[in-house]
Amino acid sequence: MYSEGKSAPVEQKRKVVTAIPGPKSAELIKRRADVVSASLGMAFPVFIERSQGGIIVDVDGNHIIDLGAGIAVVSVGNANPKVVENVKNAVEAFTHTCFMIVPYTGYVEVCEALNRLTPGKFKKKSALFNSGAEALENAVKIARSYTKRPAIVVFEHGYHGRTNLTLAMTAKNMPYKDSFGPFAPEIYRMPMAYPYRWNGDQSNCAAEALEIVTHKIEKEIGAKNVAAIVIEPIQGEGGFVVPPKGFLPGLAKFAKENQILFIADEVQTGFARTGKMFASEDENLEPDLICTAKGIAAGLPLSGVTGRAEIMDSIHVSGLGGTYGGNPLACAAALGAIETIEKENLVTRANKLGTIIESALTEMKRKYSIVGDVRGRGAMQAIELVKPGTTEPNPDAVTAAVKYAQQKGVLILTAGTYGNVIRLLPPLIIGEDLLKEGLAILDEALASIK
Ligand code: PLZ
What we know:
- This protein is an alpha/beta fold.
- Helices cover 38% and strands 16% of the residues.
- The radius of gyration is 22 Å and the shape is globular.
- Strands 4-10-9-8-7-5-6 form a seven-stranded mixed sheet, with helices on both faces. It has a four-stranded mixed sheet with strand order 1-2-3-13. Strands 11-12-15-14 form a four-stranded antiparallel sheet, covered by helices on one side.
- The chain folds into two domains: 23-66 and 346-447, Aspartate Aminotransferase, domain 1 (Alpha-Beta Complex); 83-343, Aspartate Aminotransferase, domain 2 (3-Layer(aba) Sandwich).
- It has 14 helices and 15 strands.
- It has helices at 23-35, 69-72, 81-93, 105-117, 132-147, 164-169, 173-177, 205-221, 247-257, 309-312, 328-343, 346-367, 395-407, 432-447; strands at 48-52, 55-58, 63-66, 124-129, 151-155, 187-190, 226-231, 261-265, 289-292, 303-308, 371-377, 380-385, 410-411, 413-415, 421-424.
- Bound molecules: ligand PLZ.
- Ligand PLZ binds next to α5.
């Protein structure tokens, strides 16, 4: 099924040649429903055949503009040539040993790259895992073991994964947590500095939120019981909530003063996405530990925990691991992705795309009263939709806009605690014309909503 024209480049042009879904996708959707658990969602109802650059080709031949990059994963593009070459070479050499049984160079090279690229002017070490959630789980294990303290502080609207511990850390009940408890103990959720929804003067949001959080930590948990503060530098699934300037440095300072580890979950924000290699760089943060995944390996399952060497080395031998963590093919893909990000200067590119996206979204806010807020950085930007003249969430408008865009062959993703955020995460190598066309269709979609 993958053989047809596989070497021809995918034409970087939007083309809608059938209804969405077309007949072949509709057939496959039926087949899927018969055998795949109904628990798995489907945001865009077509089956993919191929993808490159900013285009996904479905099995009916529709060319869809991809403004989601598989949730910020294929930042260097699907089937990126360097990634493909590295993975082909790796798969022909060997497919698995388990790094803890017989080590291989790719794993070491990925750790070298992570230690070099993550913020922090101190000696760092890394460990590799399979998924974002697994990286977060391990960061928590490391923090608890190093500090000999139990409590973990997380935030409203935060998202950290779907395993039992990370579900305890994730904020939103539906669809993530509902009926899946009981959840792991010693996870404490704090109010988030969310400027658009701050109760009071937005310009005081950072200072007031910091005051509340530090007070709660001191009075309700006891700072000396806290192993780590875990936060996304820009919240992803929670709706691209950008903390106001000063909030993150304030948290990091409080953490340092209280021997609490400051852990940045850069699973969604990492690897050039926000116009810096890591979003933590924006306010010169130097997190003690950084969790990465998604953009690290262009779609092959890989994640990492990187941090201060003395913390990473404090765990007993064989205390961390896993059969597949840092799988050789995923490491080969990561090295191809990282090389591409650096050689093609995708950090600068993310900023360029960000300028285009931001000006289009700002214009939409000016024109449409349902657009309450525009926010994000680099190629990670969103609009929050509200009922006109209020800040009341408008998830129905999001559903309608997404549906409209789908019918026109544009993939956009949603987010937010209230399901009222449209988020844009295009591949960083998308053509500017294609991006602008996708944004124009989003504009049309909003115009169509009454
Ligand atoms: N931390 C900040 O964004 C994954 C979830 C998709 P995994 N976000 C996409 C879904 O609905 O399951 C994510 C994230 C942040 C952790 C994770 C978890 O990463 O690789 O999905 O486990």
